[in-house]
Amino acid sequence: MRLSRYFLPVMKDTPADAQIVSHRYMLRAGMIRQQAAGIYSWLPLGFKVLKRIEEIVHEEQQRAGHIPLLMPTLQPADLWQESGRYDDYGEEMLRISDRHGRDMLYGPTNEEMITDIFRGYVSSYKDLPLTLYHIQWKFRDERRPRFGVMRGREFYMKDGYNFDLTKEDALHAYNRHLVSYLRTYERLGLQAIPMRADGGPIGGDYTHEFLVLAETGESEVFYDSEVTDLSFGDREIDYDDKVQCQGVLEEFTSRYARTDETHDEAEFAKVPEERRKTARGIEVGQIFYFGTKYSESMGAKVQGPDGQVVPVHMGSHGIGVSRLLGAIIEASHDDKGIIWPEGVTPFHCGIVNLRQGDEAADAACESLYAALEGAGLEPLYDDRDERAGGKFATQDLIGLPWRITVGPRGLKNGVVELTSRRTGESEELTPEAAVAKVIAIYENIA
Amino acid sequence: MRLSRYFLPVMKDTPADAQIVSHRYMLRAGMIRQQAAGIYSWLPLGFKVLKRIEEIVHEEQQRAGHIPLLMPTLQPADLWQESGRYDDYGEEMLRISDRHGRDMLYGPTNEEMITDIFRGYVSSYKDLPLTLYHIQWKFRDERRPRFGVMRGREFYMKDGYNFDLTKEDALHAYNRHLVSYLRTYERLGLQAIPMRADGGPIGGDYTHEFLVLAETGESEVFYDSEVTDLSFGDREIDYDDKVQCQGVLEEFTSRYARTDETHDEAEFAKVPEERRKTARGIEVGQIFYFGTKYSESMGAKVQGPDGQVVPVHMGSHGIGVSRLLGAIIEASHDDKGIIWPEGVTPFHCGIVNLRQGDEAADAACESLYAALEGAGLEPLYDDRDERAGGKFATQDLIGLPWRITVGPRGLKNGVVELTSRRTGESEELTPEAAVAKVIAIYENIA
Question: Which candidate, B337, B342, B51, places its Cα nearest to that of A58?
């Protein structure tokens, strides 16, 4: 993309009402625009990152054998009356009446609807195990929306639901989700720590939240510092292998790691003192096993191999897709702007032309642009007739991990400059070598 | 995907309340499930086609230089009060009140919000031309939703908006949209004829609807039969070339083609009698140029090169993404089921194992499956322990364009059968030759 043809409304001034850094940078980098309290437009740059995160979530869910579908944003109230949650949910549920006066709601989550889909088609254990998920807009009418996309009202979430014949199978589905979430967060450039959580209104005995450590996190967290040494890495996983998935769960959850909701001082005290850590964390996902809570109340039953008709064991598993943009920025920025991890960056590499209109500089930029595009990468070429300082400030603010700077002086020596946004380090390379290095970087993370 | 692990709830019986063939087949093929009047879940097979159409629409819009973003589903009422449409829109607008009693609505279209975004950031002609678009869920509270996804209440639409300094530039944007829409529909396997339309409540002097001819179309259409001979084909287009784009517009719109809303008997009579045709059509898109209607009422102005501040010229341009599934099926089916065009098929090729459990048949199917996946295609392997008749009926109903049938008898002679869903013709080929042929077919349409 050429910046002269793009829509990237960056702002110099810090918006007064944005309290946390991710909200400030998303506004300043022209990623989002508030349309009403807690309701945002995703401007082109923000939309690109949102789509990239969505793609990674889809890929990792499908790798785990989970099947995508899409439920609508609006739901009829009667499904929620059946489960008993229509009255319980309170003011966070946005209730709507249509032109015929029928009670509807904007879905805050989808346990009822997915259970309705399941019971509409499945009646035999032979169709199990089954995990269905979708990524769809949700609405929770927060009393006090704030922190930009971190606590919006209209938000984008992946929510998945497993249906299994037995508790044992359902706990394997739980483990599969834990494993797939660890992979997902690492691809997003995040360390998200599974912490024992509280079932809350959805209920559930087995539940973990995934937290990203950040000063601005809404939760206080307590953990054994050994958990931050763990990394999923590029290990091979067979998602059908119950023992292997259980092993990952144990590896990542056996050490103490809890939020304030479940914190237990006595347990924490057993952790050696030098490893006892307190910090703040941002919740970016949660997995639940809740047994037969919905399948009993809504009649989602199957015939087992013994001929008995039994309610299925279920769980629900969520990743806050839109919230993740905020979490990634909270975890990865400096005082000049955002620093995107390579896995989610909206453009792979910036190209800054220091002297737009200079024949050699223009030609070199065009040739870099074509070479990067030819390799399947998306460069963002700042081809505007602006001063170098302004171009650098924009690049730093929007946070592309790599930048190639092209100027007449360097070109006389046959070189351009390749700069890492994270380290700030630059090296002079021939244009061909710079392109080759950028291509190699992205091949390694694909 | 292996069918034994997928969620494809096909139905034998024809649903009683589905009046048109696309609705019946989408229900029977397990593509959609009605959750409330005019509100559907997209089951896995339907979701795959929806995503494929969305991808093609994105690709063609971006090829034309249009920039994607994403506006929220809910909008504050005050934007619509500014434009004057809040009271005009009537009962089709779903009006919502949040917990603080603020008036909101579920967006039926986005002229107001996109104009608000534009005026929030752009103030100079130097940032023009600009076309922004999104693909997002919309809601129109139809009094009588029907025909499945063809006239739903919650529907998925691509809507794009151009901002230009002059009427001339805006008409070029209009032409760009016309060209990109012709390309889009052809990639979807559809012939969509641009017909002169009526501005309706959005207004506009220049507007064309795109109609797909089908018996079940909601509009009566009148046209010169020469329009159905036109095809966009694989011609190269430079979207910046005003003359070229205008040429395409003239080629595709100079002959008589109108819906009943704009039909003019006297004009139609000038068409030679043997070329005068009457039929029914499904509207799958519309383009509008409406000048300064919204930019004046909402203050979307820029400073021109002469220093004058003037309202921008705008247009809006829509493609009914979810409705397209219905339109494609109406245009492409037989009495056994759907026939997907290669460009949108949910899976590229079916594999039917005639004797599940037979060692040679199982091994041959696995090897075909791996070869197709290895080539980047998505096969659907019917690995269930079912009778051949049931497997063929499912394949015909869900409409994959190609099927490879594998049985012990053929394998003794070293062959499998490759069958075209459209023609019903089969040929015996070695497994390697069958794979090569399927790969070649999709290479040609990519």
Answer: B51
